[in-house]
Description:
Layout: E1 2-6, H1 13-21, E2 28-33, H2 36-46, E3 50-54, H3 60-67, E4 72-75, H4 82-92, E5 96-98, H5 104-110, H6 113-119, E6 122-124, H7 133-142, E7 147-159, H8 173-181, E8 184-188, E9 191-195, E10 199-205, E11 212-217, H9 222-229, E12 237-243, H10 247-255, E13 264-266, E14 269-271, H11 273-283, E15 297-309, E16 312-323, H12 332-349, E17 357-358, H13 361-364, H14 367-376, E18 380-384, H15 395-401
Parallel strand pairs: 1-2, 1-4, 2-3, 4-5, 5-6, 6-17, 7-12
Antiparallel strand pairs: 7-15, 8-9, 8-12, 10-11, 11-12, 13-14, 15-16, 16-18
Amino acid sequence: MRAVVLGGGGLTGRCSVRDLAGGEVFDSVVAADLDVGLAEGAARAAGPRASATGIDVRDRAALVRLLRGAAVVVNAVQYGFNLAVMDAALEARVPYLDFGGLFHMTRRQLARDAEFRAAGVLAIPGLGQVPGISNVLAMEAARDLDRVDSIVIRDGWRDVTVGGPEIVFTWSPSTFLDEMVLPAVVFEDGAYREYPPMSGAEEFEFDPPVGKTRVYRTLHSEPATLPEALKDKGLRHCEWKEGGPGIDVLRTMALLGLGTDRPLEVRGQTVVPKEFTLALLKREKLLGVPDGVEMVDWEVCDIELRGERAGRPVTRHAIARFPARRDWHLVATEYAVGVAGAIGAELIATGSIREVGVVPPERCVPAGPFREALARRGIETAIVPPENPLPPLRKEGRRRRNG
């Protein structure tokens, strides 16, 4: 079987390529990227089962040709191209998954459900780390509750690198900047309401090694799908918050307009600030972990559910703890997003996910096999009452924390 990873040379796509090529499900994994050099680098790191090719996902005919006959396509390109890639996957009759669409794109993707169901093709929007792992854990934590009143998803990170760079981007800067300027959408009292970005600040105590971190409301995909999935359990409130080192820098960049698509005239030349920012970050080698630097970070996602079981109020936490993958030169976000997508691709290819249509991860991904696959990759998950945290970090984790 063949898997195609679009954006396979990027920060998260290269991780999916390496994970898939090192597994037992696929005979061939194609790293496809607009930058052929990056795709070739990802393929070399992944081993003999991986190959590289150039692709512009805006070229519909070329993309369909690439996808035909594949068992699955993992879309790791910037989320603004999600619908275009979905169209090609539908025409090629290839199951599809991506890493998220920042709420509004996700809603547009869900609107394509009837077309995909009619064609007998599956598309999973938001099967990465957050969204993705967060959705599956939230649904699993709610499974035995009679009623779910609220879900608050909080994500925090901590960099424990010794002597690392002051700033580096380990996720798409375009996506991050959008999160900082677009209104946050909260499902509140059974309806959607917009709040200013970076509002609702609170100090939250995450499990070690992240600890106390200030988190803020930003635009995210979980509130776009979980309210419908848990409608029968009476969900009335769902929101997302995040925070950690560097988030204030991102907010400042966004406020300066460095993430806008609106063209600007500079000395007779038309410049798109977002394109300029990305080009500058690439030139300054601020995308991904710099060569010669061993970055060590941690990320923790804490999903708090409040509801009722057997007539009694219940507060429950679903927690995921994400380590860096030091031997692959990947920080926590790159690793968690990439392997979550790879696990999803394997579950699709092996028939563990059988649905068709546009289906969010909480509705189609089997929590047991998914969590077991995460554990094999060093990503711990737990569903616990608040007084029972995740187990203490293993010795390797302690060593990482100390740098």
